[in-house]
Task: inverse folding
């Protein structure tokens, strides 16, 4: 588990939160329940295998800055959930296979990821994880489809808004909503009720300090591989929504969490569950 997550001891309920670290060898964990709603945190992971660590030119803080720490925490109230534990710098599950290993700076926000060019065997081992993930995802969602017919996947991420430095001006609010909803890969008209009701539920949540700015396809458009894959393989039954939280719930340059905001965001997401279930029924 990421170093900041180990230090976080927050509690959305009366009992202390247990944030036990995952095993170093874990690729991902999945939980299956009786619900048509699935949540994923595929960029939460920070772990890399030894062969990648030896060749990586980035330190842990540099990697963490581009990962999505605490997104696993945000989806814990979903009985169907998948959490990837490997860093996107080992393999980016949300990129097409051909670009899932960052080999050039332009693939990784201008960062020189490698101290030396990784051997093909190292790249192939990472790509095999990408292959296995999508085999697992297809099977997992087919099971949801068999039980419930239609389903929703919330593809949860986070994004930086102070790229110029810790004390630099944040990205303009006009370009950086608190929550960006990405829908470009879906049939938007077909899933209008689901998406619109989900966004309305987020906006109406009584968030500490005031309602959040929730907009669609502003900072991101939902062009990631996971949502594309779901809409390709489940065109009539699967609605995949990319949910990008601006990193106002943490200090993006140090990884320090802001527990009150994280707990509130988790409660907000949990509150959308019954809304999504009802919206799915209305789509039939």
Result:
């Amino acid at each position: 588990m990421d170093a900041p997550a180990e230090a976080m001891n927050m509690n959305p309920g009366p009992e202390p939160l247990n944030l036990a670290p995952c095993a170093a060898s874990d690729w991902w964990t999945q939980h299956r329940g009786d619900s048509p709603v699935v949540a994923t945190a595929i960029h939460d992971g920070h772990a890399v295998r030894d062969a990648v660590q030896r060749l990586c030119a980035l330190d842990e803080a540099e990697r963490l800055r581009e990962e999505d720490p605490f997104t696993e925490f945000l989806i814990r109230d979903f009985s169907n959930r998948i959490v990837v534990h490997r860093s996107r710098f080992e393999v980016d599950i949300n990129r097409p296979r051909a670009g899932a290993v960052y080999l050039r700076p332009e693939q990784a926000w201008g960062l020189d990821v490698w101290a030396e060019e990784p051997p093909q065997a190292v790249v192939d081992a990472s790509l095999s994880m990408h292959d296995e993930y999508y085999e697992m995802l297809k099977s997992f969602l087919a099971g949801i489809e068999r039980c419930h017919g239609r389903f929703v996947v919330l593809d949860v991420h986070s994004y930086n808004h102070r790229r110029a430095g810790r004390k630099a001006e944040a990205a303009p609010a006009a370009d950086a909503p608190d929550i960006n909803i990405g829908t470009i890969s879906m049939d938007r008209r077909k899933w209008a009720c689901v998406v619109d009701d989900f966004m309305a539920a987020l906006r109406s949540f009584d968030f500490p300090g005031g309602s959040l700015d929730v907009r669609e396809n502003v900072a991101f458009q939902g062009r990631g591989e996971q949502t594309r894959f779901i809409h390709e393989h489940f065109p009539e039954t699967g609605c995949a929504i990319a949910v990008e939280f601006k990193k106002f719930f943490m200090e993006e340059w140090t990884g320090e969490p802001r527990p009150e905001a994280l707990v509130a965001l988790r409660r907000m997401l949990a509150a959308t569950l019954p809304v999504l279930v009802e919206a799915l029924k209305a789509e039939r």
In short: The radius of gyration is 18 Å.
